[in-house]
Amino acid sequence: MLQRESSFAKEALRYGLIVLVLGFIVFPIAWMIITSFKPADAIMVSPPRFLFTPTLENYVHAIYDKNFLFYIKNTLFISVASTIIVVVTGSLAAYSFARYNVGDGHLLFFILSTKMFPAIAVILPYFLIFREVGKTGIGSFLGIGLDRPGALIISYTVFNLPFAIWLLVSFFQDIPRELEHSARLDGLSRLKVLAKVVCPLAAPGIAVTGVFTLIFSWNEFLFAYILTRKAASTVTVGVESFFTLQGILWGPVAAAATISVLPMLVFVLAMQRYMVRGLTFGAVRG
């Protein structure tokens, strides 16, 4: 009897802690969404007002007056393009490290160490490089330069690629070499083995890498703020534009933040199954 009560108390404590942690995580998001539907006179009041008439004026101001969907379109294009480049390039590089031990581990460590480099330390060289490249005909043709999508795509690719390579190497190492040898005996080339055998088996890991890369690119602020002006600005810069000299537009800020969070939330929920498989890939070995 005492043992059963002790077990019940432990379960109650565990679930209580889970609810407490979830509440701590979800509360800011819930407060942001609630604020986005509040009228202006119900936002900055004390005590907080929980009973109010919902309004869409904050969303109207964000979407139509501030043209926030323009920032969403820019961010979607830049993030997806960068993620595709990172996943494809990172998969090829990670496979070579996993199978051929290129650089005997030293090159892989050097690539990973670049991820530890603070972004603020290279933002000025990036600014100067893209400013000069944008003045050339090739830079204009490729859309590379200040306030152009190419500058952010290259920047995000450079900073996300080391993480992608480091993450994918472990996934490729967990795939048995015997499967590749069998495919080679069947007449497949090394690239076909990678495309038809290795990549499908490593799909959960590739999906996890793509999700994290897309999230990092979507939420990045420093490069977007320094390297863009208006034409290529992203959602993080768009949200910052609601902080004016006259004050902070709390309602529109909450609406814009809700709009910017929604695509990533839907994407992560859709990829949740692959993320769970990818994060546990190779965890159990026979």
Automatic annotation (TrEMBL):
<feature type="domain" description="ABC transmembrane type-1">
    <location>
        <begin position="72"/>
        <end position="271"/>
    </location>
</feature>
<protein>
    <submittedName>
        <fullName>ABC transporter permease</fullName>
    </submittedName>
</protein>
<dbReference type="InterPro" id="IPR050901">
    <property type="entry name" value="BP-dep_ABC_trans_perm"/>
</dbReference>
<keyword id="KW-1133">Transmembrane helix</keyword>
<keyword id="KW-0812">Transmembrane</keyword>
<dbReference type="GO" id="GO:0055085">
    <property type="term" value="P:transmembrane transport"/>
</dbReference>
<dbReference type="Pfam" id="PF00528">
    <property type="entry name" value="BPD_transp_1"/>
</dbReference>
<feature type="transmembrane region" description="Helical">
    <location>
        <begin position="193"/>
        <end position="218"/>
    </location>
</feature>
<dbReference type="InterPro" id="IPR000515">
    <property type="entry name" value="MetI-like"/>
</dbReference>
<keyword id="KW-1003">Cell membrane</keyword>
<dbReference type="GO" id="GO:0005886">
    <property type="term" value="C:plasma membrane"/>
</dbReference>
<keyword id="KW-0813">Transport</keyword>
<comment type="similarity">
    <text>Belongs to the binding-protein-dependent transport system permease family.</text>
</comment>
<dbReference type="InterPro" id="IPR035906">
    <property type="entry name" value="MetI-like_sf"/>
</dbReference>
<feature type="transmembrane region" description="Helical">
    <location>
        <begin position="150"/>
        <end position="172"/>
    </location>
</feature>
<keyword id="KW-0472">Membrane</keyword>
<feature type="transmembrane region" description="Helical">
    <location>
        <begin position="12"/>
        <end position="34"/>
    </location>
</feature>
<feature type="transmembrane region" description="Helical">
    <location>
        <begin position="107"/>
        <end position="130"/>
    </location>
</feature>
<feature type="transmembrane region" description="Helical">
    <location>
        <begin position="76"/>
        <end position="95"/>
    </location>
</feature>
<feature type="transmembrane region" description="Helical">
    <location>
        <begin position="248"/>
        <end position="270"/>
    </location>
</feature>
